[in-house]
């Protein structure tokens, strides 16, 4: 919509000629300038500028829907990819939502890739078995995708289906794995995907992991700029999700959390928070910063403490803050407690990694 | 006022100056055809110039009943108007109390906080609460929800509307005659149908929708609330020239303020946080910069206070800075002391 051409908007011809003569060709060019700048640039008076901007805005503005229409649309299209983990599905009102960015964050080795493998399988399954009957695009930046493991998960979770001849092959053929080696390759494949997603019936997009891409880009010395190198890709990922109404699942890494990282608002003053010191040894935080944390719609934190692993629903517009203990088995991830443990307060955002290191036991 | 301050195109202005017309009085007694001939412009353009001149001169000497300046009202009139204003309840009594009743109409309120604190929840709660019928203490108006991040979930709006209706029916006895008629209007589907939802995918569309709102609001006169969730997202992603960004944002906020006054509605902008280097260390602050922080009338920051969610009024011309705790429950935003059963979301 932003790149809509002014010449096609139905403005009076003399006006659109003035715009194109000054090289203001798209709605984006026209609306990025304040009205007085446009008046100076185009050499026409303010009333004419205002009416031109009003017509361009009306043409560029997307149509509106009522909340009721939105709900009905959601009901029709299903709207969720069930994870087959009843507790998690309940908390997320059905499963991983379509059209939104879901983030899985946790320390290495905790089970994020296992979760992604199972999701990929679930999306490829035919609808009679609870799947989406579509293709899956798996963007693997750390070379962690293991098809053997995925078939193992399949045989463990749906033994009766996978014994059927040829079905395992059919499922595996629906999962498309790509391994970009730089951010520009990643962006290019995203661009191409926007067109092919609908044509090829892709029902799930997984990026495992997005933090690795940023690490590569650091070699160019962009650490000095405070703006993340992923800016363009982020809004593009979101718009792909919206446009094609597929679930997009992204994996993120963690980094250690020093006490300097605890930012406070100016009005709160500088209080020394003593409780932080005991947590700082095992306190981790999600990579990619606060801008990324704002951008994702749902954040699932995978953490380990007191000898168990937990999936926490940390950020979600539709769920209460709950944590589910889980284990990783041959059939993938299984929840130990379907009810979930309610987590109070800002604990829901903490990531801990205690109790699963074999050397300390 | 000089010729250089008139809202006319630069080429005509330079022609006027080169012909010696430097002040408004020199243009006061000239006919359009004479001016057209003098400047070698078309007759219509000369008429426009003279109209611009007469607009600026008559505004200085017009007679206005109450205020001495056109468009002004006395403080007494404003006071009586303000006392008649209804406010939009946030769902939490403590927060309503420190806000002086709720979110004010005719003002732009900015709400910011870290991810996951409940900004979108508050946005959806306000979009539902503005529709509470007048008989039950609400405004009975509709809401425009401009979503730039895709965080509006229709199922959650359904839950919040359900919770709101449940609490209203609980609070008001349903046997009195005047309530019976509007009780029928208290349907969840009606509340959902009263939210006009725009999904914005770039900052160009964001600017376009705010420009278009004037026409939209003229058509849909019962809209009493405009929420933008969030105003920051696209401006942080793709804008490279920060000075231009500040100017564009300034234009946006002026337009929103004008809309709120013209149509007597409340504008609520949800903002993200960023870090700023002050006093030798990084502090949390709302995004979009220092110039933007002046644009809004009121500013509320949602933050974690230990294990509690709190709302802090950082900036308001009419109420004192204060903090109030709130909860995000299955039914929406509620206060801590309200009697409720913590419903599990199914």
From TrEMBL, chain A:
Q: Which InterPro entries match?
A: AAA+_ATPase, DNA_recomb/repair_RecA-like, HHH_XRCC3_RAD51B, P-loop_NTPase, Rad51_C, RAD51B, RecA_ATP-bd
| Keywords recorded for this protein, A-Z | ATP-binding, DNA damage, DNA recombination, DNA repair, DNA-binding, Nucleotide-binding, Nucleus
A Gene Ontology cellular-component term? replication fork
Which Gene3D superfamilies does the annotation name? P-loop containing nucleotide triphosphate hydrolases
Give all residue intervals belonging to the RecA family profile domain. Answer: 77-254
The keyword DNA damage is assigned to this record = yes
**A single GO molecular function term of this UniProt record:** four-way junction DNA binding
According to its UniProt record, where is this protein located? Nucleus
Source organism, top-level taxon:
Eukaryota
The answer to whether keyword DNA damage applies is yes
Could you tell me the Gene Ontology terms of the biological process aspect for this record?
double-strand break repair via homologous recombination
What does the sequence similarity comment in the record state about its family? Belongs to the RecA family. RAD51 subfamily.
Write the protein's name.
Answer: DNA repair (Rad51) family protein
Species source reads: Rhynchospora pubera
UniProtKB/TrEMBL annotation, chain B:
Q: Where in the cell is it found?
A: Nucleus
Keywords in UniProt for this one? ATP-binding, DNA damage, DNA recombination, DNA repair, DNA-binding, Nucleotide-binding, Nucleus
Q: Name one GO molecular function term.
A: crossover junction DNA endonuclease activity
Q: Which InterPro entries match?
A: DNA_recomb/repair_RecA-like, HR_Repair_Mediator, P-loop_NTPase, Rad51_C, RecA_ATP-bd
- GO CC terms, sorted: Rad51B-Rad51C-Rad51D-XRCC2 complex; Rad51C-XRCC3 complex; replication fork
Q: Which PROSITE patterns match?
A: RECA_2
Q: An example of a Gene Ontology BP annotation on this entry?
A: reciprocal meiotic recombination
Q: Which SUPFAM superfamilies match?
A: P-loop containing nucleoside triphosphate hydrolases
Q: What is its main location?
A: nucleus
Domain RecA family profile, chain residue ranges per copy: 84-273
Function (record text): Involved in the homologous recombination repair (HRR) pathway of double-stranded DNA breaks arising during DNA replication or induced by DNA-damaging agents.
The record's similarity note reads: Belongs to the RecA family. RAD51 subfamily.
What is this protein's name? DNA repair protein RAD51 homolog 3
Organism this protein belongs to: Rhynchospora pubera
């Amino acid at each position: 919509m932003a790149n809509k051409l002014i010449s096609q908007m139905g403005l009076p011809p003399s006006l659109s000629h003035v715009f194109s003569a000054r090289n203001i060709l798209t709605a984006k060019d026209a609306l990025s300038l304040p009205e007085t700048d446009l008046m100076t640039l185009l050499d026409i008076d303010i009333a004419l500028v205002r009416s031109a901007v009003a017509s361009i805005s009306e043409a560029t503005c997307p149509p509106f829907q009522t909340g009721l229409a939105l709900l009905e649309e959601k009901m029709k299209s299903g709207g969720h990819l069930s994870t087959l983990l009843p507790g998690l599905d309940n908390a997320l009102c059905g499963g991983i939502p379509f059209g939104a960015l879901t983030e899985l964050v946790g320390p290495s080795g905790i089970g994020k890739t296992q979760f992604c493998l199972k999701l990929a399988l679930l999306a490829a399954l035919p609808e009679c078995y609870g799947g989406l009957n579509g293709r899956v695009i798996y963007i693997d930046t750390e070379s962690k995708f293991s098809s053997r493991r995925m078939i193992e998960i399949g045989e463990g979770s749906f033994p009766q289906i996978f014994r059927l001849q040829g079905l395992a092959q059919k499922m595996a053929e629906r999962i498309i794995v790509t391994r970009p080696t730089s951010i520009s390759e990643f962006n290019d494949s995203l661009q191409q995907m926007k067109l092919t997603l609908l044509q090829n019936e892709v029902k799930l997009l997984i990026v495992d992991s997005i933090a690795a891409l940023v690490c590569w880009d650091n070699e160019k010395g962009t650490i000095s700029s405070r703006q993340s190198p992923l800016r363009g890709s982020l809004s593009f990922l979101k718009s792909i999700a919206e446009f094609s109404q597929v679930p997009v699942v992204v994996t993120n890494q963690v980094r250690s959390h020093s006490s300097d990282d605890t930012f406070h608002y100016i009005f709160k003053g500088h209080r020394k928070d003593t409780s932080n010191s005991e947590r700082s040894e095992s306190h981790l935080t999600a990579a990619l910063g606060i801008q990324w944390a704002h951008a994702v719609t749902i954040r699932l934190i995978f953490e380990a403490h007191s000898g168990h692993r937990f999936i926490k629903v940390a950020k979600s517009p539709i769920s209460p803050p709950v944590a589910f203990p889980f284990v990783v088995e041959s059939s993938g991830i299984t929840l130990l407690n379907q009810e979930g443990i309610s987590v109070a307060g800002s604990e829901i955002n903490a990531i801990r990694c205690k109790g699963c290191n074999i050397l300390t036991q | 006022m000089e010729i250089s301050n008139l809202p006319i195109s630069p080429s005509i202005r330079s022609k006027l100056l080169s012909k010696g017309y430097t002040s408004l009085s020199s243009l006061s007694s000239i006919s359009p055809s004479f001016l057209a001939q003098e400047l070698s412009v078309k007759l219509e353009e000369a008429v426009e110039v003279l109209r611009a001149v007469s607009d600026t001169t008559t505004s200085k000497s017009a007679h206005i009943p109450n205020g001495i300046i056109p468009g002004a009202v006395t403080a007494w009139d404003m006071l009586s108007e303000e006392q008649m204003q209804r406010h939009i309840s946030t769902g939490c009594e403590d927060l309503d109390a420190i806000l002086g009743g709720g979110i004010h109409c005719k003002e732009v309120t900015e709400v910011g906080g870290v991810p996951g604190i409940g900004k979108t929840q508050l946005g959806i709660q306000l979009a539902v609460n503005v529709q509470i019928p007048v008989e039950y203490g609400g405004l009975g108006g509709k809401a425009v929800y401009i979503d730039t991040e895709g965080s509006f979930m229709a199922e959650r709006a359904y839950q919040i509307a359900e919770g709101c209706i449940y609490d209203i029916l609980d609070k008001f006895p349903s046997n009195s005659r005047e309530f019976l008629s509007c009780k029928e209007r208290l349907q969840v589907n009606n509340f959902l149908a009263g939210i006009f939802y725009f999904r914005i995918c770039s900052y160009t569309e964001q600017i376009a929708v705010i420009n278009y709102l004037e026409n939209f609001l003229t058509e849909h006169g019962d809209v009493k609330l405009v929420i933008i969730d969030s105003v920051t997202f696209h401006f942080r992603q793709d804008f490279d020239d920060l000075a231009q960004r500040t100017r564009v944002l300034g234009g946006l906020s002026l337009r929103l303020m004008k809309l709120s006054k013209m149509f007597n509605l409340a504008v609520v902008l949800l903002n993200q946080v960023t870090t700023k280097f002050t006093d030798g260390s990084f502090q949390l602050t709302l995004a979009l910069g220092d110039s933007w922080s002046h644009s809004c009338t009121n500013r509320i920051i949602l933050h974690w206070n230990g294990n509690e969610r709190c709302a802090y009024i950082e900036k308001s011309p009419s109420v004192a800075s204060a903090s109030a705790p709130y909860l995000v429950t299955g039914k929406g935003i509620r206060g801590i002391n309200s009697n409720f059963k913590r419903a599990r979301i199914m």
